[in-house]
Write a structure and sequence with these properties.
The chain contains 18 helices and 24 strands. The chain has 573 residues and is α+β, with helices and mostly antiparallel strands. This is alpha-1,2-Mannosidase.
Length: 573
């Protein structure tokens, strides 16, 4: 294309020429993303505004009757006039919405929410709550919002913020601690916020309930300097891992007092799902290699014993033989986790199978029988779950394949077509008839809308690394939270040469050197280890079982693994 030399026409010609270098498909993609982002924004505010109008400050909205429920505790069965006089509402949906408001850039509503919570929210109430749910929804929501509030780059706070959310989180965390007072450190599933563990409390809990606490409680310890929260969650996680079978599989439910498994069927679905998720995300957030080693073993076992083509069935934890051939909607998180683990090809294949089921029914049924290709007769509901949207977001981030945007658009259309009502968004009771149920779960605002929004507008995660908790609350990955070895580290598996230099490949055992001539001497050439010495498996002396510990160089005694995961001479003579 040639351009005239006339100045006025030359400028116009150059603009036309430039248009030839702009990919029209790229332009279309950006227009589509902007349009879909605004549709998701409208969805969020339709759900949020109705909650604030008809349910706040209670836990969750009932959109069909425009009323409320306090779903995290036994208070959910009581009517307004029967609530305790000191109960002001725990505003779970507000807590859950704070990080979504931040991502949508609504600093005004974000700051208003913080102000209300700091002045009104109390956990000193006689209410029995589910530890796992309260941890991921309330504690996680408070911690995430606190971190967003103190980050000056977000510009979310115009007034003063004095760590009010962190103080609330710390108070809640302390109320969790009595749940861990069991023989093996496995926490009770239920805790009374005012009175601790109730008399005759059930001792049954799930693998997720015990093993999905480390992100929130670990972050709380890092922020407050109080190690009790992370220690309690880590002890429970380690104990759970010790209870795995020889196949590296874990059951679904267990007894926290006896430490015995109650349900032997193992899977990546309900009751176990977030256990896998938190192993990998804890490794990313805290940098402990232990978490990666556990996740790698558990992931390889899942591929060996659960995977059948692109699907994942359930298997007996002891034998590895299939037990139930069924898809559960919670499993749809798995492709997103596979993306984080780097297994993108497998993630893509699994994701497509979940989406095919979504297309077949319009939404994702809670349970689908793979061997019969039918919906489970008693689990036909869809409670606005976010897992498919979550995995779609991760896969688009990893591949930038526009097909995932089409998936997101389909999800948005389905939600608006089947679940949107004047009072918010209602759960689906039966996906075969699209009969609705009077419940808008808080995770619809915390996760479903959030992941859909991030799919079409990823500016929030473009410049910083975040992990998202199992409830969709972002926590920034910070190097200061990562464990590091001391700069001067002495390994018991190394010895000195006569010159004082390290001989990193030579151990006292391989050299058959004698015990130290002068144990208290600081002279390098005299720092020898006995011939009986067997080094610990890990250089930092971390361990999961006694077999990873060696033999002490001085006493020639077998070392053992402590309850907090370090090799040492813990057993008495």
């Amino acid at each position: 294309m040639s351009c005239p030399l006339h100045p006025k026409l030359l400028f116009l010609c150059l603009l036309i020429s430039l248009a030839f270098f702009i990919d029209p498909s790229s332009q279309h993609l950006e227009v589509k993303k902007k349009l879909m982002r605004e549709k998701v924004r409208q969805m969020f505010y339709h759900a949020y505004d109705n909650y604030m109008t008809y349910a706040f400050p209670h836990d969750e909205l009932k959109p069909l009757t425009k009323s409320f429920t306090d779903s995290l505790s036994e208070l959910g069965n009581l009517k307004l006039e029967h609530l305790p006089t000191d109960y002001n509402g725990s505003a779970v949906t507000l807590v859950e919405s704070l990080s979504s408001l931040a991502i949508l850039g609504n600093s005004t509503e974000f700051e208003k929410g913080i102000l209300w919570l700091s002045e009104n929210l109390t956990f000193d109430i006689d209410a029995r709550v589910n530890l796992f749910e309260c941890n991921i929804r309330v504690l996680g929501g408070l911690i995430s919002a606190h971190l967003l509030a103190i980050d000056p780059s977000n510009r979310l706070i115009q007034g003063s913020y004095n760590n009010q959310l962190l103080r609330l989180a710390e108070d809640l965390g302390k109320r969790f601690l009595p749940a861990f007072e069991t023989p093996k450190g496995l926490p009770y599933a239920w805790i009374n916020l005012k009175n601790g563990v109730m008399e005759n409390e059930t001792t049954e809990t799930s693998t997720s309930g015990c093993g999905s606490l480390i992100l929130e409680m670990g972050a709380l310890s890092r922020l407050t300097g109080d190690p009790r929260f992370e220690s309690a969650a880590l002890r429970a996680l380690r104990q759970l891992w010790r209870m795995r079978s020889s196949l590296d599989l874990l059951g679904t439910t267990l007894d926290v007092v006896t430490g015995e498994w109650l349900e032997y069927s193992s899977s990546i679905g309900a009751g176990v799902d977030s256990f896998y998720e938190y192993l990998l995300k804890a490794y990313i957030l805290f940098g402990k290699e232990d978490y990666w080693l556990m996740f790698r073993s558990a992931y390889l076992a899942s591929q060996k014993y659960f995977r059948h083509g692109h699907w994942y069935h359930e298997a007996n934890m002891w034998s590895g033989k299939p037990t139930y051939w069924q898809l559960t909607s919670l499993q749809a998180f798995w492709p997103g986790l596979q993306v984080l683990a780097g297994d993108v090809a497998a993630a893509n294949l699994s994701h497509r199978e979940f989406f095919h089921v979504w297309e077949k029914f319009g939404v994702l049924p809670e349970r689908y029988l793979l061997d019969h290709q039918i919906i489970h007769p008693t689990m036909k509901y869809y409670p606005l779950r976010p897992e498919l949207a979550e995995s779609t977001f991760y896969l688009y981030q990893a591949t930038k394949d526009p097909w995932y945007l089409d998936v997101g658009e389909t999800i948005v259309k389905s939600l608006n077509m089947y679940t949107k009502v004047p009072g918010g968004f209602a759960s689906v009771r039966d996906v075969t008839t699209m009969q609705l149920e009077d419940h808008q779960h808080s995770f619809f605002l915390a996760e479903t809308c959030k992941y859909l929004y991030l799919l079409f507008d990823d500016s929030f995660v473009a410049k910083k690394n975040y992990i998202f908790t199992t409830e969709g609350h972002p926590i920034q990955v910070m190097s200061s939270w990562h464990e590091k070895l001391p700069e001067s580290y002495f390994s018991g598996n190394w010895t000195f040469s006569k010159s004082g230099a390290w001989e990193s490949q030579a151990s006292a055992l391989s050299l058959q050197v004698c015990p130290s001539i002068a144990p208290n001497s600081r002279r390098p050439e005299q720092q020898r280890e006995s011939a009986c010495h067997v080094p610990d498996k890990q250089i930092d002396h971390r361990c999961w079982s006694n077999k990873e510990c060696g033999v002490d160089a001085t006493t020639c005694r077998q070392r053992s693994c402590s309850g907090v995961g370090f090799c040492g001479l813990w057993n008495p003579l």
